[in-house]
Design goal:
Elements: E1 11-20, H1 24-37, H2 44-65, E2 72-80, E3 84-91, H3 99-102, H4 119-126, E4 129-135, E5 139-147
Antiparallel strand pairs: 1-2, 2-3, 3-5, 4-5
Helix pairs in contact: 1-2, 2-4
Bound molecules: adenosine-5'-diphosphate (ADP) and magnesium ion.
């Protein structure tokens, strides 16, 4: 069980990115978040973890939330006191019926067999904390928190 990271720390810098759910924007989102976080001088491994987690969350918006359509993805990044990073990825897509189930390793609703069902597991393991809030028909918000080395 991982230690919970408390994020009561003051926000020192923040950014917000709004993108349509085109697959070309997955790489854009990943690179933009990494570029913004680079000001904290993360290690190469920390940066790779952040990119991977963001990539999984944004891919889920593209392939699941807006499966039959194109919708808006909002990505917010907060850099907080004490080298804490909070990343919020939000969609207004289909929502998740059972979040607990969706978070289980290997669970996927993908019928074509293209998805591994490991997206949430990757996000959870590459960050210190992951929160998922979802409402059917309303959308999903994933909050990722990571504390960088001193
Ligand atoms: N943003 C989202 N909107 C709707 N459903 C989602 C979203 N993110 C994840 N899901 C659901 O949770 C399941 C598990 O997600 P994930 O662990 O990334 O595995 P995968 O994407 O490989 O299916 C998905 O199959 C999908 O049903
Ligand atoms: Mg996924």
């Amino acid at each position: 069980m991982k230690n919970r990271v408390e994020f009561t720390a003051a926000v020192e810098n923040e950014m917000r990115l709004l993108l349509p759910s085109l697959s070309v924007n997955e790489g854009m989102a990943r690179a933009a978040v990494a570029a913004f976080c680079a000001q904290l001088n993360p290690t190469a491994l920390e940066l790779a973890d952040i990119k991977c987690a963001v990539s999984e969350a944004v891919t889920n918006c593209i392939v699941h939330a807006y499966r039959e359509s194109i919708g808006e993805i909002s990505i917010g990044v907060k850099l907080c006191e004490g080298r804490l990073i909070q990343i919020e990825i939000q969609d207004k897509g289909c929502g998740i019926a059972d979040v607990k189930k969706a978070r289980e390793p290997l669970f996927t609703t993908d019928a074509e067999g293209e998805r591994s069902g490991m997206g949430f597991t990757v996000m959870e393991n590459f960050c210190d904390e992951m929160r998922v809030q979802s409402r059917l028909g309303r959308g999903t918000t994933v909050i990722l928190r990571k504390r960088l080395h001193k």
